[in-house]
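Async update (no meeting this week)

Hi team, since we skipped the sync, here's where things stand on the single-chain job. The sequence we agreed to prioritize is pasted below, unchanged from the tracker. I ran it this morning and attached the output directly underneath so nobody has to dig for it. Comments welcome in thread, and please keep replies under the output.
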Amino acid sequence: MRIERIELRLLRLPLVRFFETSFGRIHQRPFILVFVEGDGVTGVGECVAEANPYYGSETTGTAWHIIEEFIAPAVLGRDFAHPREIFPALRAIRGHRMAKAAVEMAAWDLFARQQGVPLCRALGGSDETIINGIASGVSIGIQDSIEELIERVEVELAAGYRRIKIKIKPGWDVEAAAAVRAKFGPVPLMVDANAAYHLEDAAHLARLDEFALMMIEQPLDYDDVLDHAALQRGMRTPICLDESLHTPKIAAEAIRAGACRIINIKPGRIGGHSQSIQMHDIALAHGVPVWHGGMLESGIGRAHNIHLSTLPGFSLPGDIAASRRYFAPDLIDPEVIVRPDGTIAVPTEPGIGVHLVSDRVAALTEQRLELRASA
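Output:
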């Protein structure tokens, strides 16, 4: 596999409905799409960095810069036997895993298309999941009132989602969880704090134990493992780590330290598919359940996530929801849909198996850059 051309496009899509976390509220989502071409075949990936450095240190601006000035020169014109070689080839570049992931995941799509197989097969997905589809959960942002939260949960359950996640922050946590549990009974329910709390809040967070939650996701700071271990010792509710797990090595250390009982994997955040497979394998070896998180991706990133979710360790419903829940229209056709049984079909065509609507992408493009290998 030889990457001969890289194309970057910056786009912006309005959200169907605002999305609020402990970081704040957004109404639109910028994207960098990355196209890699070799031997007349093109693969596509999506950078999950946001406009602001609140969820992570990277932004669309930093990712564009790193891909243009450092990643592209390291991969253009170079022969790779397999896309798993891309991430090690970028080792000299510290951090910037979202930028690396966008190129690496595009290379996986390119490779699978060249091989004539769906990406899930190239990644090593489970036959059962590939055939039956992946289980879908939904993430509900912070609302303006408890009443609106209940309304949103009703809508999502009616749509067939198998698990409800609600975002929490100080002042919007125990009451919100209590209201959902009281209204909807034993529905699978979890909460996500996006690093909004401190270890000093342990007693308050322990109040969530009474609601039989599947998990509490990333309650403490993004660079914290040991405090999560201390918090977990005082809670019955399983802690799931997301932002803290930058690398497979940190995931292994977190498991050994007792900092988490569940792991959330987001390939676009941790460096791509190869790093995700390593983290998945570590969790599987330790008997730790894994599920696939979401980053408000367009249909391109969403399709990549669907394929990765076919690996056998992804045993819990992920945050991969229908396209129209976020974007109407999406960048792909047909859009990702959730079936009445709460599953999403795995695309069967080569690569990620979805089709970009070229006119839509062109109309929404705010910035474009083309880079080619030297002759």
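Quick observations from my side:
The longest strand covers residues 5-21.
The CA atoms of residues 77 and 375 lie 9 Å apart.
Reply here if anything looks off.
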